[in-house]
């Protein structure tokens, strides 16, 4: 068993009350686990919500681990009515990318993937345009062209859904089509989008042009989980870059694209490392 | 005549066409001026607007300078249909402050004023609350309390206008009342406001609370010229600071207040140095 | 007992090994404590060091709390050979400031103190110059002028030590004298300094001038604990600001002073909240 | 003649004295030029140096342009003893890259090149290792492997010089060999290096490890012109990114590499656009 295979990750969210940490850490200690890292957050010590992310090593085979999880459910999770997930880091997330014509977010994430920066395996790129095929295939990753024709979007979404089946995460590296609520519901895995503005400012189309007209002094990018409401899902990460009166909309787009790919990559990396927990329509990022 | 007295500042805006810089610089050179700094901007070389800010030394007495300005008008400004202003830097801008109860932007700007950071003289602080009197008077600056009572705002604005007469610039250091269009029209000098969000996000009241609910990862501040439309005037400067899930609305407010005072001070300083030119609803900051 | 009085803070550092978190959290839970926040860090899961900062509420009177601490020592701290500290947050740190002539870091920290941003009570300002007396006394804080004359530094340090006796923290808000190793040893409490460069670049005197000559594109500030070696103690916080070829050394100093006061204030605030733990010559900031 | 072909760029540096701008702009205006952008900087109005960068359109054929430059030399440049350069932007700079094994700066600049972000043509990549051949050739750019063996460096430098002949700019995208003074002298074109620290801190080898040991809270990158003195040439651009106690040296390297490629790309882009002028051992960046 390799070093990385030995690490187990545990995510917990529940109503806060005394004894949670004691119960979790005692259970892990008695099972022989060694805690490698631990983060917790309480929205309010009185009546708030409790969130925890823990990594520990635990030398067990697969069967023992399954039994360990069952005992955790009974002895710890149920008494505290926890939402929880536990799994071994040795299984990286399977990731599919959706993209249109812009290459910057796509190439950056493919490069980070090749470099081993992500705890995830990018297994497929789906695009509504054929333009980026050669770039994707140069990384040894399959590329599927699914055109989205006017009036035939539902059909395209069915093809996309068939291709995306079995993936744990879908990431939109500047995919310029709106995903329908039905699509999201059938997909049933998290979808991360990169929006080219500092949300909630300039939601929707053409944010750089609108930023230019408004005369803002910083342009930004926002990575968020996709929900049926456009550009309104929980924000994972944001950043900005300074612009001046010298920059026309094309300059803003060029400067912004550097921020887009950085913000997108951070969000995908953090999601793959299970650092992002949901709380209402916001995120906790450990 | 002191070194600083010798500096003249020239601002120009006009339709761009060939020969502007040649005409201006030739006129200045023949008059014996020595250019100390010069910035220019063209929105578009074909059919765009031209903006220029120039500083030069010109050893003249007051009468000669008046004659010099007349000749500039005839020989240079009129042929190019320029909007222009020229004056000696030795006359600092007279500034009045309006404030409510928050002290951070006020104290910061008073301290910078005392330190000599601003090319301006703060001569008065007007507040709708009496709370900050001692702080202001400790800086040797008069403090006037003008309560704004419900239903009697117009009356209060008349008192304010009487107090503000003769000032070149009014700055709102977190003044929590909306200024009426009539007030702005009668005041007839620039008004700079600091808004505690990264506009256009979270215009209006309660931006930190709304930022918290939206789950943004950065909070910001925006300094802008005041126009009758709330929080929509030309933006002079903006900045942001990173926040996390750990920060409640009070934390966002504390972190944000550091950004507010910095952004506010930069905008006031730049305005006093005549670095901010208007172009439609945006600014050019040299 | 007020809400804030009920919070107890616990800091731990020790060699990492399995069971630490379980032992601590079980002990706290059985004593009736409710954990409000908890941060931990392991430098290396195998043979590394373990650091923890915990805040919990524990409804006890003073005598019960003393007994609680004794039991913690025996039952938890000794078996793991912990370095540890535990105390109630209701007792703020007593802080003394040393300063020379620059006012920016001093006024900023006095203002934050007045605003209630610090968990500490500033009780005294000691200066080798009389200049800032009025500013300090306006905040209702005693000011002591202790001149440091050439050849009589040891004498001045003895006077300073007498004044500083009983304080938990000494902060140097741009104090332009080097503190001797003997002074530091006799003082025997932490000393935080703000250095006006991005250390280790430009340690020693005149950093802005040297930054200007070197042509750096960012200037910075560093808050660190003072050790006998000049400008080489553990770094608590750093930040930078962008400068251009337009800025002479005076401009760099002006821009830098904004960063100095921000970095200084953060470091003092974090120290007062016991967020800063030492590890070799570096810090862990929770 | 295409739109971009019509732009001429003029760089000037000379001792500052009255009349420079007037002479230049009058000459250009009389020749029929239309100034598109203009930046100037005076280190000191009295006895300082003057720097200018100007872009203008001038509809001339090649022969007329040569005559125009001759007249500029006689009528303007000589009277003011200017160092000056003038050329048409239609001729992009020919760029060669030197690299070792790290791919991040290389791939980023090749991607920006393909995207049309640089005013330059990357024509060759030379490496002392064969590793990156496929990546480079995928961009359609020749790759030359020139091993640098111990004791045979001079020989390798001769091969490199032969390959680099005819290029206007050499950029070191993490090239891990020191270039000899003889090499630089024979090369006789500017060389831009990216150093993985915030110079002057951590010059030389292993900066991330040393940054980690020092406990700095920000790591940086510096792009500079190469001079015979290691890591001490004029700085073009710098930036930093925040790190915490959680980050080991590998994390610092990962985070830093994002800053390296950004800073490197900005420096190369600005150099290609002739925005970087030298003043003693520093740069003016217009």
Q: Which characteristics define this entry?
A:
alpha/beta, 286 residues, 13 strands, disordered N terminus, homotetramer, globular, seven-stranded mixed beta sheet, Rossmann fold, 8 helices, four-stranded antiparallel beta sheet, Alpha-Beta Plaits, 2 domains
Can you tell me about this structure?
- The structure is a homotetramer of 286-residue chains.
- Chain A is α/β, with parallel strands linked by helices.
- The first copy, chain A, has two domains: 7-88, ACT domain (Alpha-Beta Plaits, 2-Layer Sandwich); 93-285, Formyl transferase, N-terminal domain (Rossmann fold, 3-Layer(aba) Sandwich).
- Chain A contains eight helices and 13 strands.
- Chain A has helices at residues 20-30, 62-77, 104-115, 133-138, 153-164, 181-187, 207-214, 249-272, and strands at residues 7-15, 34-42, 49-57, 83-88, 93-99, 120-127, 143-145, 169-172, 191-195, 218-225, 235-242, 276-279, 282-285.
């Amino acid at each position: 068993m390799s070093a990385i295979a030995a690490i187990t990750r545990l995510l917990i969210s529940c109503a806060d009350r005394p004894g949670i940490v004691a119960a979790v850490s005692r259970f892990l200690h008695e099972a022989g686990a060694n805690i490698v890292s631990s983060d917790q957050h309480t929205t309010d010590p009185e009546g708030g919500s409790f969130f925890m992310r823990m990594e520990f090593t635990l030398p067990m085979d697969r069967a023992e681990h399954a039994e360990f999880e069952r005992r955790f459910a009974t002895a710890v999770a149920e008494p505290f009515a926890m939402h929880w997930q536990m799994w071994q880091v040795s299984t990286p997330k399977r990731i599919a990318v959706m993209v249109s014509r812009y290459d910057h977010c796509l190439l950056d994430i493919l490069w980070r993937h090749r470099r081993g920066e992500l705890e995830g395996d990018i297994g497929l790129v789906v695009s509504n345009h054929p333009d980026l095929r050669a770039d994707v295939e140069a990384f040894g990753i399959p590329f599927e062209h699914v055109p989205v024709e006017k009036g035939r979007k539902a059909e395209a979404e069915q093809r996309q859904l068939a291709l995306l089946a079995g993936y744990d995460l879908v990431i939109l590296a500047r995919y310029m089509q709106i995903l329908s609520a039905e699509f999201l519901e059938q997909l049933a895995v998290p979808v991360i989008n990169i929006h080219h503005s500092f949300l909630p400012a300039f939601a929707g189309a053409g944010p750089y042009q609108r930023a230019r007209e408004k005369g803002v002094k910083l342009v930004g990018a926002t990575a968020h989980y996709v929900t049926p409401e456009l550009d309104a899902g929980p924000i994972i990460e944001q950043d900005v870059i300074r612009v001046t009166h010298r920059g026309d909309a094309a300059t803003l787009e060029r400067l912004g694209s550097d921020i887009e790919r950085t913000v997108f990559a951070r969000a995908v990396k953090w999601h793959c490392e299970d650092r992002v927990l949901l709380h209402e329509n916001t995120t906790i990022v450990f």
